[in-house]
Write a structure and sequence with these properties.
Structural class: mainly alpha
Distance between the termini: 38 Å
Radius of gyration: 26 Å
Oligomer: single chain
Length: about 110
């Protein structure tokens, strides 16, 4: 059956331009998301290091008798906090890996 009107498509140049613009926007969104994840990751790493140092100093002070044994609960809380930081930083690192894979894949389409 013949169509009553001709079916037309855009020119290949226009399709390439449209595809390139779309991929550029995708890569930019991936880069922005990666930067956001990296910022959170670096902030958590800094807090982790500070908490680890505080826990070590407090634990040493308790062992040396400079702080009461009741402060040991504070050390335990810091250790729990550090474990949550470790879990979150692992999650963020995996997110960065996925985003990098997505970016590489998107770049192969250009």
């Amino acid at each position: 059956m013949a169509l009553a009107w001709p079916f037309r498509t855009r020119s290949p140049d226009r399709d390439r331009q449209t595809d390139a613009a779309r991929l550029d926007r995708l890569i930019k969104a991936i880069d922005e998301t990666s930067a956001s994840v990296a910022t959170e990751l670096h902030g958590l790493e800094a807090r982790y290091e500070a908490t680890a140092a505080n826990a070590a100093f407090l634990n040493e002070a308790i062992e040396d008798g400079e702080e009461p044994e009741s402060k040991a609960a504070s050390v335990d809380e810091m250790i729990e906090t550090m474990e949550r930081y470790r879990q979150r930083t692992g999650s963020l690192a995996r997110q960065l890996d996925v985003l990098e894979d997505m970016k590489r894949l998107a770049q192969t389409l250009t």
